[in-house]
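Weekly modeling sync, notes
Attendees: S.R. (lead), two postdocs, one rotation student

Agenda item 3: backlog of single-chain predictions. S.R. asked that every request posted to the team notebook include the full sequence so nobody has to chase files. The rotation student volunteered to paste the first one in as an example of the format we agreed on. Action items at the bottom.

Example entry:
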Amino acid sequence: MSYTFITGGASSGKSGYALERFISRRDVTFIATGIETDEEMAGRIELHRAARPSEWETIEGPIDFIPAVRNSKSSALIIDCLSFWVSNLVYSEKLGHDDIVAKAVAAAEFLEKIDREIIVVTNELGMGLIPEYRESRAYRKTAGEVNQIFAKYAKDAYFIVSGIPVKIK
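Predicted structure, as returned to the notebook:
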């Protein structure tokens, strides 16, 4: 069994769509990659927590979410989101492009073999303006390549537009 890949713009409804797919289930693990870096981010994290059913397990996996997948006993998992994961690897772990791409390949290959329902959520960053600063352009390039890797290994993929899922694979 492989996983489902969900992408779209910021605040497009990706996480809501992922939650909706598993909302009637009790044995779900939500693997969160976001890190509380400021008050605004703390508020966003709290809103995401409040949207999840209370019986779902939440595991923080900002740097390496593979142990959370391995250790979870749930039959369904949501990993939300790859964009934060890449950001954490760039800014917290100081990893370069090639190391992040290698981690992405290893993680996607690992998830492809897991016999549970998994949803991977990410932001599509390549449809906006070209960032002004080199560091932002490098992040966007790395995140875009990571998204391509995860989309390649996914069994199906959805692009969320204004809350509407469009199957792309």
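Discussion: group reviewed the output briefly. The two ends are 15 Å apart (CA to CA).
Action items: rotation student to repeat for the remaining queue; S.R. to check formatting next week.
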